Every structure is written in structure tokens, then in C-alpha cells.
């Protein structure tokens, strides 16, 4: 009987645990999310590029919302919002293998990947043909009967009559989305496929949570059902509407999903721009932040509020696509968001532009212990100055934003820890901690770091070390508010010294590494393609510029013969830390001219064999760098004219700008050279 009771209690606990993790968004969650892409951010959001940023995000970013990762039917670069395949995860952002590697790297760094789940609609081949997909021995295929009866305003029904096919008997449960088929979520087949797809994303690919696209298009009850089926902990829906409608949708999910706080975003936009609807007034009106028309203000729903100030749909994409962007004060907008309850979602372009400042804001947020359920109090709401005090579970944080942040000064129980363009942060002295205004990270040059004592003891002193050891009473001292020089890679530890005891130690890891532009070489071999001929063009570009001549690019005549294979090659300059090269090999302009698929995000010397295999009429390429230059020895000594090539190469084949200073093995004039 006792054993049975224990089993029963264990089962109850297990069921409770499963239910807890399917409750939309964790209670008292202190994490910060990053939208890891913007519109057309193919360069900056390649899986391989994002993976390299994991260590830099660690400790600051907890969740990264990735672009829709399934393969689309289009052959050109697409953002993924017209999904075709579910179980094929080769997209414009990289291969499935690269995506799996990224998710694993994120997980190792304590970062969860959020999948962009687009299931309101689905693309078709023609009007009605969905792909047939097999996963784990089960075949999945949607049918015309899975399409909503009134899809595309009745146009689909007319086409169905013309082609003699039948649609669902159910009408669309929400807004229509023209251009793709709106699928019927009441269909048992649709439900089976989507549940299998979501389980695949979570259990196989390793995604931590889901961002549901365009949830206005189908009932929130289905989101609840899908989340129950997967046991997902993080779920957020894009319900683009006013606050009452968003709350109604959250309730329909049985509070098993969070939602983006659109009204919070509009509050920020109106305050920054000084006007609504994308217009800009003569001056900002920061008092507009004092609004009750958002999820974040509501104690019953702020747990489910994912706040943001900009995203891929509101950003300015071009002069012809103005959308609804923030026109100014982007960093102040982020400062406000990151000091408030809800779960803040930082936009990738903001992260790239203001990473150091945003990191410090996140550090302050976490130091205060602010969560998605924290309470806050308004302290000032004027046109030129707005101040809120948020109570974390460790301390209080005051954020002041506006054109005149000096108009508000908190009491003596607060210490200023951050200051920037139109924003200030004040931390309550009850935190009893040391503070440095420069966050951990990699920097290209030395800097001055300001140290602050946040303590109720006015006599507390600051002590620090730069060798990674904990500071003691005998360590170097510095006056509160003064700066120290950080000129080399080091681990800074700074603490409060009171009555001979050091407390409140904080650790900062700095890497000082000046970026030196370098040259890479991209090689192409077309021996496997019948009738490719001798014409070889390289068309290369990135998000900043077209690197070669305009399409079809630059005619390449330079060749090198390695072990009997003829390689066309071209050098490219890598000018910055995050610079990449995208390239297409082709035969030039003209009817029937051959070209390869896009090769993306190259930042080191690579060897590519153009294969006979085609994808959407474009020849695929195989990266054979590991075969032809695994150590830089294979083929390198046989490169023609090596005796006149005075450059230095790494063993991976990367060309260096000068003789290396670091010890190691290098290639110089066709020979291995050891530098001690």
C-alpha cells in the first residue's frame, strides 16, 4: 500500500511538472530574449555566423528567436514566411547540420533557441499540392481538404471548382493571409502533422520554445493543444492587435502561451517619435510611456508579456518600405525596456549597434533581480523626463529616460551606475555590490573602466584585481567613481571593502584583441560539370556591398594546379570582425549559361568543387577544404609560382597580411616554417 501510494504521488508530481512546463511562459522569469535576425539579414543571421556569437552572448542573452528554419519552395533568398517543408531544415540561413550545430552551441552556453513556427498558412506547388514528407518512418502530407473553405477571399474555392478538388467544410477561424493556403486547424490531419512537426523541432532539432507567427489567423485553443502535445516551456504568439484582444487570445490558449506586447511597443514609439503612426513631432514626449494600455502594466498578465521596441515588421527596410520604425533614441528605448517587467526582446540591429551598452543594461537588470512579474512605480512623467522604479527580488532599479534626464534625481539610497544618450540607471544601495560600467566581452582596443561602490556604507571602498584572484583588503584600492585602465586581456574582479572585509565581488572577463584585416582565397573547380568550359566568373557580395563587378561578376583567369586539378581562384579582403563573403560561380551572361547555388558566409580560405548535381537549376558545390588544405600541405608546395609568392599562410590556407608574430607552423614560399 505504501509503495502504491509513493507511485501515485510520483505520478501526480510528474504530471504537475509536465503541466508546469506547458504554461506558456515561466513565472518569475529573469531572462532576456534576442531576435536573432532582421528583415533580409541573411549575412548576419547565417547559422554559422550566429554560432560564433554564442560565447559573447553567454550570461547576457538567454533565448534567441531564430528565423523560420524550414526549406521554402522559392529558389532565391527568402525569410521563410511562406513555409513549404516542415521536416527539411535547409533554409536561406544555412543547412540543417549547421542549424543543429548552432542550437547545440547555444545550449552549451545556456542559451535556448526559439523556433519561428509559421503554421497559419503554408505554401503549395501550384494551388493545392503540398509536399510529401517522411519522418521517423511516418509519411505526412496535407490535402486540399485541409485548406480553409474561404481561403484567399473565395479565390481558392473558385480554383478548386475549376480543378475539381474539394476543400475543407470549415471556414477560417481568423484573418486570411493571401498568397498561401490558410490551413484548417480543426482538421485531424493538420493537427497530426503540426504536432509531429513541433515535436521534431523540440525533441530532435533541440529548440527550446516556439514563436507562433500570425496567431490572429487561427484559434488560440489550437496553440494550447500544440503546446500540451509537446510540453514546451516557452511559447509566444504574434497577436498584432490592441491590448484587450491580446489578453483575450492569451485566455483562449488557457494561458499556455505568452504574447508580444504590441501596445508596449507603440507606447515607446509614440514617446520617442513624439507622435503616433510613424510620424515625428518637433520633440519627443516621454510622458507617453506612462500608459496602462499594455500587457506589461497588468499584474495579471505581465508574466505573459514579451516586450519589444522594434522588430523585422516595424523596422525601416528601405525608402520604399518605411513601415513604422523608431526614428531616434533607439538606445534610450532599449534602456527603458530592459529595466521593466515582462520578458524583453532585443532586436538584432540594436544589439549589433549598441552591444556594450545593452550588455550593461542586462547586467543591471539581472543584478537587481528583475523578472517578468516584478512590480514598478512611476516616479516622474514629463515631456522631457520619465522615470520608473522597478522592484527586483534582489534590489531596486530606476530607469530615467528623456531629453533632460537630470530633471529627476533619486534619493540618497540610490547610486548611479549607467549613463548614456538620453538615459540613466540608478541601483538601490541595498544591493551592496561593486559595479563596473564596461561589461565582459571582446574589445579591439584598451579602455577606461569606471568603478562604482553601490553600498549603504558611505565609507565603503573599492578594491580590485586583474589577475582573476578575489580581491582582499590588501588589493589595489580606487576611489568610488574613478576609472582604471584596461589595456590587456584580463579578468577584472572588483569588490566592496568595509571594516576589513571584502564583499559584493563582481567579475568581468575582457579580451583585448585588435582586429587585423586579412585576405582569404576562394578556389573553384568545375572539372565534374560537363561542358562548363574555360569561362569562370565569381560574383561576390555581402549586405554592405557588391564586392566584385556587377552580375555576372568578375571574369577569373587566375588558376592554380593542385595534384592535376585546375582551380580558379580569387582573393578577398576581410575588413572587419564580422565581415563575410557570399559568392556564386557562373559562366557569365547569356542564354543557357550555368551558375551555382549561393555559397554563403565565407570568412576563411575555401576550396569548392562544382558538382553535377543541381538544385532548382543551379549547380551545387561541395566544400572540399578539408581534403585539399587540411593542413595547408596538400597541394600547397605544388602551387605554381610559389617561389615568387612571398606571402605567409596558416596551415588552414588563410593568407596573412604579414609575417606572423605568434609561434606556430606556417607555409611560406611553398615550405613549412616553424616560428618559435
Can you put this structure into words, describing what you see?
There is one protein chain. Helix 6 packs across helix 7 (220-230) and helix 10 (330-338) packs parallel to helix 12 (355-368). This protein has three domains: 22-120 and 187-368, Glycosidases (TIM Barrel, Alpha-Beta Barrel), CATH 3.20.20; 375-512, Immunoglobulin-like (Sandwich), CATH 2.60.40; 518-675, Sandwich (Immunoglobulin-like). It contains 13 helices and 38 strands. It is of the alpha/beta class. The chain has an eight-stranded parallel β-barrel with strand order 1-2-3-8-9-10-11-12, surrounded by four helices.
As a whole number of angstroms, the C-alpha radius of gyration is 28 Å
Distance between the termini: 74 Å
What's the domain count? Answer: 3
Which blocks of ≥5 consecutive residues have pLDDT under 50? 4-21, 631-643
The largest sheet has its strands arranged as: 1-2-3-8-9-10-11-12
CATH topology of the largest domain: TIM Barrel
Counting H and I runs of at least 4 residues, what is the number of helices? 13
Overall pLDDT score:
92
CATH level 1 name of the largest domain: Alpha Beta
CATH architecture of the largest domain: Alpha-Beta Barrel
Based on helices, strands and strand pairing, what is the structural class? alpha/beta
Strand content: 25-35%
Percent helix among the residues?
A: 10-25%
Amino acid at each position: 500500500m505504501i509503495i502504491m501510494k509513493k507511485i501515485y504521488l510520483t505520478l501526480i508530481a510528474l504530471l504537475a511538472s509536465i503541466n508546469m512546463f506547458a504554461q506558456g511562459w515561466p513565472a518569475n522569469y529573469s531572462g532576456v530574449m534576442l531576435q536573432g535576425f532582421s528583415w533580409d539579414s541573411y549575412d548576419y543571421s547565417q547559422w554559422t555566423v550566429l554560432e560564433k556569437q554564442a560565447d559573447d552572448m553567454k550570461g547576457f542573452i538567454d533565448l534567441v528567436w531564430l528565423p523560420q528554419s524550414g526549406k521554402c519552395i522559392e529558389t532565391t533568398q527568402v525569410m521563410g514566411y511562406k513555409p513549404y517543408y516542415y521536416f527539411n531544415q535547409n533554409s536561406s540561413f544555412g543547412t540543417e547540420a549547421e542549424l543543429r550545430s548552432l542550437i547545440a552551441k547555444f545550449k552549451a552556453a545556456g542559451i535556448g533557441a526559439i523556433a519561428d513556427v509559421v503554421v497559419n498558412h503554408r505554401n503549395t506547388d501550384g494551388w493545392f499540392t503540398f509536399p510529401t514528407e517522411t519522418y521517423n518512418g511516418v509519411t505526412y502530407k496535407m490535402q486540399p481538404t485541409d485548406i480553409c473553405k474561404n481561403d484567399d477571399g473565395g479565390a481558392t474555392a473558385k480554383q478548386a471548382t475549376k480543378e475539381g478538388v474539394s476543400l475543407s467544410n470549415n471556414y477560417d477561424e481568423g484573418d486570411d493571409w493571401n498568397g498561401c493556403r490558410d490551413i484548417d486547424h480543426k482538421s485531424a490531419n493538420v493537427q497530426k502533422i503540426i504536432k509531429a512537426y513541433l515535436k521534431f523541432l523540440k525533441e530532435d532539432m533541440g529548440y527550446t520554445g516556439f514563436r507562433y507567427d500570425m496567431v490572429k489567423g487561427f484559434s488560440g485553443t489550437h496553440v494550447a493543444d500544440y503546446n500540451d502535445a509537446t510540453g514546451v516551456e516557452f511559447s509566444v504568439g504574434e497577436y498584432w492587435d490592441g491590448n484587450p484582444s491580446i489578453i483575450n487570445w492569451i485566455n483562449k490558449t488557457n494561458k499556455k502561451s505568452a504574447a508580444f506586447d504590441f501596445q508596449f511597443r507603440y507606447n515607446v514609439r509614440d514617446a520617442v517619435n513624439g507622435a503616433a503612426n510613424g510620424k515625428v513631432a518637433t520633440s519627443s514626449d516621454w510622458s507617453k510611456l506612462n500608459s496602462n494600455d499594455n500587457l506589461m502594466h497588468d499584474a495579471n498578465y505581465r508574466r505573459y508579456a514579451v516586450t519589444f521596441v522594434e522588430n523585422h515588421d516595424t523596422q525601416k527596410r528601405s525608402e520604399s518600405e518605411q513601415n513604422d520604425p523608431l526614428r531616434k533614441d533607439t538606445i534610450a528605448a532599449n534602456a527603458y525596456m530592459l529595466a521593466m517587467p515582462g520578458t524583453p526582446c532585443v532586436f538584432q540591429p540594436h544589439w549589433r549597434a549598441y552591444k556594450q551598452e545593452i550588455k550593461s543594461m542586462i547586467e543591471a537588470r539581472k543584478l537587481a533581480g528583475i523578472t517578468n512579474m516584478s512590480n514598478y512605480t512611476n516616479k516622474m512623467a514629463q515631456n522631457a523626463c520619465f522615470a520608473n522604479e522597478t522592484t527586483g527580488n534582489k534590489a531596486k532599479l530606476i530607469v530615467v529616460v528623456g531629453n533632460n534626464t537630470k530633471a529627476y534625481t533619486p534619493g540618497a539610497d540610490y547610486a548611479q551606475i549607467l549613463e548614456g544618450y538620453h538615459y540613466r540607471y540608478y541601483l538601490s544601495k541595498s544591493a551592496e555590490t561593486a559595479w563596473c560600467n564596461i561589461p565582459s566581452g571582446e574589445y579591439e582596443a584598451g579602455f577606461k573602466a569606471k568603478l562604482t561602490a553601490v553600498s549603504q556604507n558611505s565609507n565603503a571602498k573599492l578594491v580590485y584585481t586583474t589577475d582573476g584572484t578575489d580581491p582582499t583588503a590588501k588589493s589595489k584600492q580606487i576611489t568610488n567613481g574613478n576609472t582604471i585602465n584596461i589595456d590587456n586581456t584580463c579578468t577584472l574582479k572588483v569588490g566592496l571593502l568595509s571594516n576589513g572585509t571584502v564583499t559584493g565581488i563582481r567579475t568581468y572577463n575582457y579580451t583585448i584583441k585588435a582586429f587585423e584585416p586579412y585576405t582569404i582565397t576562394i578556389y573553384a573547380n568545375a572539372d565534374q560539370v560537363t561542358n562548363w568550359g574555360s569561362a569562370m566568373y565569381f560574383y561576390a557580395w555581402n549586405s554592405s556591398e557588391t564586392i566584385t563587378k556587377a552580375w555576372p561578376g568578375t571574369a577569373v583567369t587566375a588558376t592554380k594546379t593542385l595534384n592535376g586539378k585546375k582551380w580558379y581562384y580569387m582573393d578577398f579582403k576581410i575588413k572587419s570582425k564580422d565581415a563575410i563573403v557570399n559568392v556564386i560561380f557562373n559562366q557569365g551572361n547569356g542564354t543557357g549559361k550555368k551558375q551555382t547555388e549561393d555559397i554563403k558566409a565565407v570568412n576563411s580560405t575555401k576550396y569548392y568543387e562544382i558538382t553535377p548535381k543541381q538544385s532548382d537549376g543551379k549547380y551545387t558545390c561541395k566544400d572540399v577544404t578539408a581534403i585539399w588544405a587540411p593542413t595547408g600541405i596538400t597541394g600547397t608546395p605544388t602551387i605554381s609560382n610559389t617561389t615568387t609568392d612571398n606571402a605567409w599562410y596558416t596551415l588552414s590556407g588563410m593568407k596573412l597580411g604579414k609575417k606572423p608574430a605568434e609561434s606556430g607552423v606556417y607555409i611560406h614560399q611553398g615550405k613549412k616554417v616553424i616560428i618559435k
